[in-house]
Amino acid sequence: MPEPSSPDNRRHPPSDRRSARLLAMGCERARFRELIGKVGSGEHTSTGLDRHEAREAMDLMLRGTPSEAQVGAFLIAHRIRRPLPLELTGMLDSYREHGPVLTTPGRRALCFGVPYDGRSRTAPLLPLVALVLAAAGQPVVLHGGDPMPVKFGVSLAELFGALGIEWRGLTLGAVQQRLDRHGLALTHQPDHFPAAERLVGVRDAIGKRPPVASLELLWTPHRGDHLLVSGFVHPPTESRAWEALRAAGEADVITVKGLEGSTDLPTTRAGITAWMRRERVERILLHPRDHGIVAAEVPWESLECWQAQALEALAGTGPLADPLRWNVAAWLWFSDQLADLPSALDQARALLAARSGLRQAEALR
For 122-158, how does the pLDDT look when each residue is reduced to its tens digit (9 = 90+)? Predict the structure, then answer.
């Protein structure tokens, strides 16, 4: 025979208590709990999110609605299960809605997405590449933040700061003004996307790079005609990026297996890239030795050491000069400024010899 119900159960059935608890939680936190359940129910019962639900989850996190415990649970569950491409698209929709916006009317921008947690093993090239490309008339849009978990490597803002170019503390209007005048912009997450910055503490607490970190590679603050360049490390990450960006309407994308997940092309091995245009993906391998580039990768030592190396490279000398020339040439070619890679290498050499990047840095300072 069934055991008799307790007096408490007779007065307050479990279903009523659950309803009361959800009511006390609030409708939005209760809804977020449902979304956690969809990504965190285990291998056999997790259903995942559709594009609308993924956007809804990201919207709620950016608005600061869920508790920190809920955000941490969602991020780590999503990390363990791995996000579906359409989930990344939905989260990207939310970033586009809530994040800063920059434009280059009448000009096609080159937009780079690299990990916000920075570099710690190899000397970065992207700030130098951006300066030289901007000097050549190619608008460049970057985005980043302060040193960030899990890696806490050197950030883009710190690297530019070492060259005397400060992006931190600027208004978005001032960043747009620099883009208009000098063809270069860097949005700084603490200043220009505080809603996303709110998630950094939780990311640090869980100790793993969550799917939100993938948005740093897929999203750009630029609106309008652009070529989006996205770094990756593992092949599954690249294929997910293609699917997510295709669904998001990005029509011109290059993925790069760069140094430490960045977009910096290596000089000691083939540069593995893929160009997604009009829904077709073309694998492109760039062999530096075929073009006379035999430079070693330069190890990261310190910001002070990098500063000296960077200034030398912008003048066409020092250990970073050939890696810089190789990367500038590749992006001149990819951005259709030169017809072929040998011509782009000649142009890159001329730009460095003319100290164009140094002059661009001085103008920005």
Answer: 999 999 999 999 999 999 999 999 999 999 999 999 9
Tell me the C-alpha distance between 63 and 65, whole Å: 6
What range defines the domain where residue 265 resides? 102-364
In the predicted model, is pLDDT for residue 346 greater than 70?
yes
Per-residue CA distances from 227 to 87, 97, 119, 129, 219 (Å): 23, 20, 23, 15, 12
Q: Are residues 53 and 195 in the same domain?
A: no
- 1 found inside a domain: no
Are residues 111 and 227 part of one domain? Answer: yes
Contact 109, 97 (CB under 8 A): no
Flag whether the pTM goes above 0.90: yes
Task: For residues 60 and 114, state if they share a domain.
Answer: no
